[in-house]
């Protein structure tokens, strides 16, 4: 196929060109020639500027397909169609910002679109960005014989020019205490630029028609699971200061600006990270793992010159450090990673349970179980909370089931939210490890606050199935509980 890519040299464009070339297509790019061009020599390059009506290079040309990476203004979109003899199948890269509101949750492609107050405006910085993208979509539907319209969420991966997602990967990898927003369960959505590229290539090859949301599945990722993935990939200790919305506002920490990719999951932004992507998935959209995205992103980031490795998004280190210093003496800091002081953990667990059996269980699990992790919570450098998670053997193969046990909170700090912080950070770290189900044998009036259910537990066969309401399960992958045939706890649980 002969494919025209309009744009093609910034962030997503090179990935699109790479995907097309890999699939054996002939690629032509049309752009102003302003952005540094690293595309292969075999790519045909045409220069022009549709906004300035400089389209001579396109006049009379025909292509089997066109992928438009950067259309913003309706009149400029019309000018491209006027210049080309035939654009072929037209794939327009739009944005979820084209929707009228981020308030409703679970919006699919039929949701209302933004409408420009002034249909003639070309001032994208005035808050008209979404309306401009919606207007461009309208032009494509009107002028193209067949078209795909791809509404992208936050685009991430190597080459990112915004540094929004990169902020989290680079900041966690740098170590130290980070500020995290509200609750580990806060949802996030994004799309890897390479997944966009592969899908756009598929759309032009199959002449896929319709409008499609290109984001990861709703509720698949959270801010807690993202931080946990970044911690594992970078192999560092991650200390996290979780601040509620009121505290963030009081301290002058702004959503999206200082804490990129995140908007509060209530009010006008309640649906920002819950867009429905099922139509695109049905058409063949596939997702790289978060680990792959973060690892490749960090590899790319570390290879950049020092002047580029100054983050363009997110709170500055000096401001972050000042806030952490002011809060750390009175607020809990949650930690993921290697446990430096096992003696402190043993003393805390023994004190919390009033006897050493659970402390011995922790030591035995560390020694005998291949896959475990621990979450610690400290206040003013004093350990006040600890929880351990262990991966279980499960039938059938392919399911991932973890156990929460034991959880310990300093007796003087109980009923102050320490246990909830331990549980939430740990559960999202399990999500980051691909958990389908988490099991716990615990107090039936405490663990339901995390979503654990005795009804679900009753459907997970194990040695503890006879424990009644104390045997509970939490389902992270819908339907996973009913696929579990048996779970087997590590030997230290039996020995205890």
- Uncertain residue ranges: none
Radius of gyration: 25 Å
Derived structural class: alpha/beta
Q: Tell me the quaternary state.
A: single chain
User: Quick one: biggest sheet?
Assistant: 8 strands, mixed
SS elements, strand count = 21
Global morphology: elongated
Separation of termini?
65 Å
Number of helices: 15
Mean pLDDT: 96
Share of β-strand residues: 15-25%
The level of helicity is 25-40%
Strand order, main sheet: write it out. Answer: 8-13-14-15-16-18-19-20
What does this structure look like?
The protein has 496 residues and is of the alpha/beta class. It is built from 15 helices and 21 strands. The chain has helices at residues 12-22, 74-83, 129-143, 164-173, 193-206, 223-234, 245-250, 278-282, 290-302, 317-327, 342-353, 357-368, 418-432, 454-457, 491-495; strands at residues 2-6, 26-31, 44-47, 65-68, 89-95, 147-152, 155-156, 177-181, 187-188, 191-192, 210-214, 221-222, 238-243, 333-336, 372-379, 382-391, 393-395, 401-409, 437-441, 471-475, 486-488. The strands form 5 sheets. The chain has an 8-stranded mixed sheet, sandwiched between helices. Helix 4 (164-173) packs across helix 9 and helix 11 packs across helix 12. The radius of gyration is 25 Å and the shape is elongated. The model has no long low-confidence stretch (mean pLDDT 96).
Feature tags:
496 residues, alpha/beta, eight-stranded mixed beta sheet, seven-stranded parallel beta sheet, 21 strands, 31% helix, elongated
């Amino acid at each position: 196929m002969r494919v025209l890519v309009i744009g093609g040299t910034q962030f997503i464009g090179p990935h699109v060109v790479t995907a097309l070339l890999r699939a054996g297509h002939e690629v032509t790019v049309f752009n102003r020639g302003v952005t540094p061009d690293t595309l292969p020599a075999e790519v045909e390059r045409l220069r022009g500027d549709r906004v300035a009506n400089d389209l001579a290079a396109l006049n009379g040309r025909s292509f089997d397909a066109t992928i438009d990476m950067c259309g913003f203004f309706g009149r400029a979109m019309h000018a491209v169609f006027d210049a080309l003899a035939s654009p072929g199948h037209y794939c327009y890269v739009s944005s979820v910002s084209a929707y009228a509101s981020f308030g409703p949750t679970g919006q699919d492609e039929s949701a209302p679109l933004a409408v420009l107050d002034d249909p003639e405006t070309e001032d994208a910085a005035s808050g008209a960005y979404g309306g401009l993208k919606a207007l461009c979509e309208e032009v494509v539907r009107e002028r193209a014989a067949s078209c795909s319209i791809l509404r992208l969420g936050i685009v991430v991966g190597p080459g990112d020019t915004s540094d929004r997602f990169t902020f989290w990967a680079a900041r966690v990898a740098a170590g130290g205490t980070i500020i995290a927003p509200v609750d580990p369960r806060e949802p996030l959505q994004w799309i890897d630029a390479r997944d966009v590229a592969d899908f756009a290539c598929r759309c032009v090859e199959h002449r896929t028609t319709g409008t499609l949301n290109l984001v990861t599945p709703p509720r698949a990722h959270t801010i807690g699971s993202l931080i946990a993935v970044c911690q594992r990939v970078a192999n560092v200790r991650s200390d996290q200061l979780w601040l509620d919305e009121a505290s963030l506002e009081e301290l002058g920490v702004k959503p999206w600006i200082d804490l990129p990719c995140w908007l509060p999951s209530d009010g006008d932004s309640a649906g920002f990270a819950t867009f429905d992507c099922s139509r695109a998935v049905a058409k063949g959209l596939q997702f790289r793992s978060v680990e792959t995205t973060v690892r490749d992103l960090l590899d790319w980031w570390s290879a950049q010159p020092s002047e580029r490795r100054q983050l363009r998004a997110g709170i500055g280190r000096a401001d972050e450090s000042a806030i952490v210093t002011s809060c750390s003496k009175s607020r809990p800091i949650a930690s993921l990673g290697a446990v430096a002081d096992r003696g402190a953990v043993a003393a805390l667990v023994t004190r919390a349970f009033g006897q050493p059996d659970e402390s011995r269980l922790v030591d035995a699990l560390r020694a005998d179980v291949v896959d475990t992790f621990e979450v610690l919570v400290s206040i003013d450098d004093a350990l006040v909370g600890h929880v351990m998670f262990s991966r279980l053997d499960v039938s059938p193969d392919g399911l991932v089931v973890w156990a929460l046990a034991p959880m310990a909170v300093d007796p003087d700090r109980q009923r102050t939210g320490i246990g909830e912080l331990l549980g939430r950070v740990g559960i999202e770290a399990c999500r980051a490890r691909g958990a389908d189900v988490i099991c716990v044998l615990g107090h039936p009036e405490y663990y339901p606050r995390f979503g654990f259910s005795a009804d679900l537990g009753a459907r997970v066969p194990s040695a503890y199935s006879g424990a009644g309401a104390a045997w509970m399960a939490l389902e992270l992958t819908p339907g996973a509980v009913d696929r579990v045939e048996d779970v087997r706890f590590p030997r230290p649980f039996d020995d205890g």
